[in-house]
Design a protein that fits this description.
About 60% of the residues lie in helices and about 5% in strands. The chain is mainly alpha-helical. Strands 2-1-3-4 form a 4-stranded mixed beta sheet. A hairpin with a 5-residue loop joins strand 3 and strand 4. It is found in: Membrane.
């Protein structure tokens, strides 16, 4: 590092004598680099130890999180959701990201009202549909926003919107990069946050009705023709799932009185019937792959009616995987940095 510092000082010396031309920003950056290399000269062995500690901490914490998630899922999920909700907002306030903070506050206000509705007792029969509709809208917005952001970043890598800097000027960040990162960040973050909150609301609503319990038997007996998700009788237009996991066309067993519109229903392989909107919300939005009443596995292929559904399911899986990077990665690195500070490994 000492050699790097000397090389930078030679460049700065040549700039002072007029042999080479550097802008004020370039000179400032080189001075900071030279200062950094001087301060860290001879610390190569320390840096190697720090790198080993970071790698070990990441692996060890991964095992701890997996054990916690397996044996105490509810506390793990609650802690993750709270961290996902609070940590980015605190970082935005500290960094002066007013735009993100405003969007976060608006989302929190509306989402708090949805959570309030989902946790009321007794539960209104329209609440599950409202809850799933809200999180479906959040998911669709996050999905489209993420795709737009990714498209902008891709165009930047292809050279669109990039203006070569003039001689003596510092390169400027393309507006496609700035807005691409913004859209991508918003889409991923609020998509993940919505996924966590809808899981909490799903279990709360189902438990309130009494037809679902996470473990053991339900508190209430499910009568024939009653939807266990909203507690209302299903319609006579019932679709079934065949042996190949395909959803069959609905069969109207009895016409609706007075010509009122019939809400489509689905009969699972276990024999229980649900409103199509309810069971789709339970399985695709609420992240459940089982019957709410008997817990028999549900073939999710039946609810993917077009290629976009499969693509969006992959996007949902990606959101679940990114949760670790957003919540636990900063926590782990913060603990490691605190350990470096306490042991003098600066």
């Amino acid at each position: 590092m000492e050699q790097r510092a000397e090389s930078i000082e030679h460049i700065l010396h040549d700039a002072e004598e007029g042999k080479i031309h550097l802008s004020e920003g370039q000179i400032h950056n080189l001075e900071n680099q030279a200062k950094y290399f001087h301060e860290h000269a001879g610390h190569e062995s320390t840096h190697s130890k720090m790198a080993i500690i970071i790698i070990f901490a990441l692996i060890a914490f991964q095992f701890v999180l997996l054990w916690w998630k397996k044996h105490h899922y509810r506390s793990y999920q609650a802690t993750t959701t709270i961290g996902l909700w609070i940590i980015p907002f605190a970082f935005a306030l500290q960094s002066g990201m007013k735009q993100f903070a405003i969007v976060w506050v608006l989302f929190t206000i509306l989402n708090s009202w949805i959570i309030y509705k989902a946790t009321r007792k007794p539960l209104h029969h329209m609440t599950p549909k409202v809850v799933y509709k809200w999180y479906w809208v959040i998911y669709q917005i996050s999905y489209v926003t993420g795709i737009i952001g990714y498209g902008m970043m891709f165009l930047t890598f292809m050279g669109f919107g990039v203006t070569p800097p003039k001689e003596g000027e510092e390169p400027k960040t393309s507006f496609l990069v700035t807005w691409g990162l913004t859209f991508l960040t918003y889409g991923v973050y609020f998509g993940i946050l919505g996924r966590d909150f809808v899981e909490f609301c799903t279990e709360s609503m189902a438990s309130t009705l009494g037809y679902y319990t996470k473990e053991g038997f339900p508190r209430k007996h499910l009568r024939l023709g009653v939807c266990a998700i909203c507690g209302i009788h299903v319609s006579n237009a019932i679709s079934t799932i065949d042996a190949h996991g395909h959803l069959q066309a609905p069969v109207v067993l009895q016409p609706s009185p007075n010509g009122a519109p019939i809400e489509p229903s689905i009969k699972l392989n276990c024999g229980h019937e649900f409103h199509e909107e309810c069971i789709r919300g339970w399985c695709l939005i609420g992240k459940k792959d089982m019957c709410p009443y008997c817990k028999e596995k549900v073939d999710l292929r039946a609810f993917k009616t077009n290629p976009w559904d499969t693509t969006q399911q992959l996007y949902l899986n990606l959101l679940d995987a990114l949760r670790y990077m957003i919540v636990w990665q900063p926590v782990i690195m913060g603990l490691v940095q605190f350990g470096f500070y306490m042991t003098g490994l600066d």
